[in-house]
Amino acid sequence: LIERMRVYGETIFAEMTRLAVETESVNLGQGFPDTDGPRSLLENASRHILEGVNQYPPGPGRPELRRAVSRYRSRHYGLDFDPDSEVYVTVGATAGIAASLLSLVERGDEVIVFEPMYDSYAAMISLAGGERRPVALRRDPESGRFTFDPAELRAAVTPRTRLVMVNTPHNPTGTVFTSAELEEIAAVCREHDLIAVTDEVYEFLTFDDRRHVPLASLPGMRERTLSISSVGKMFAVTAWKTGWVTGPEPLVRAVRTVNQFLTFSANGALQLAIADAIEGEGEWIEAQRLSLQGKRDRLAEGLGDAGFDVNVCEGTYFLMADIRPLGYRDGEDLARALPAAAGVAAVPAKVFYDHQDEGRHLLRFAFCKKDEVLDEAVARLRRWH
Ligand code: PMP
Ligand code: GLN
After folding, report:
1. CATH 3.80.30.20 fits 39-280, yes or no
2. ipTM for the complex?
3. For strand 318-322 and strand 87-90, is the pairing parallel, antiparallel, or unpaired?
4. Per the database record, which ranges form the Aminotransferase class I/classII large domain (predicted)?
5. Whole-prediction pTM
């Protein structure tokens, strides 16, 4: 293994899911729903396979899906992208993130990232030969939400900064960036001529009337932003590994150049089914949002009863819980012990930080599960402590 990748062992999601299986724990670690998304989507995919959609689709994706993506970005966000040159289908958001960073980060370039950060950002910045400049998201003592200090963001910019990596709604803190927060980021990008790559996989998972705002929709940002989405989160089919990148033609062309040698193309039959679901399953998406909001409240209350200090998130599948009221200090130690001790698996937030002390006392719990599964997890945690 090349030297710069040697620090990356097994991902925390794989490790915790393995531990959960070994101990027959309730798995609130890795974020995947335990109910599959719309019936019509599943049936259409099966039908397309049986009817013979089984050979390579075009590298950039099936035109039906690129058109559907272009239309929903326009409908929801007022952003217009040419389906032929400005929409590009990838093998999940993971490949979109990889292709974006590998095509835009030059050796020695610096990338600003908000920490805690989703694990693939650090690995792909390293693979590209770049360096991370983390800016902390900290829990505001008054509002309880995780946010950043604009002065810290500005101080992270150097002459070598090339790109800002943004994730909203944010995994693992659950923060949905407000327009004001996004404007702080946009202003820095415009002033220093930076590119933004935005991971928007939880775009339809926002709660309490909050709505996702893409950074690309702010003044001067369309021309310098690549936005990444995933059908895994949009339609609760995380195994489908299909996503898309939208952005201005020159940036999408860069992604295309790299991605044609990473995966060449994604699954064609699934793309056709997804195109129909994007057009026809808007109500399902809204119902999913409400259902998840209820699950958030259910698990937040249960974890609170079990003694954790819970941050009620604004979006995503995840709650962050402070373990200190229970007398614990290190979330990584606790996450490794919890499956055997309590029969519940969670993810230690610490692994999402460069400055690990900032997240040492936090566990991330996924609530994208059936109510009875959440209740069982809470019952087990209450028995444990
Ligand atoms: N980004 C974030 C923030 C995620 O939580 C995930 C995991 N779902 C991904 C990217 C990867 O998405 P996909 O499964 O589509 O590759
Ligand atoms: N995105 C999922 C999470 O944050 C995990 C995806 C994965 O296992 N790589 O839990």
Report:
1. no
2. 0.98
3. unpaired
4. 25-381
5. 0.98
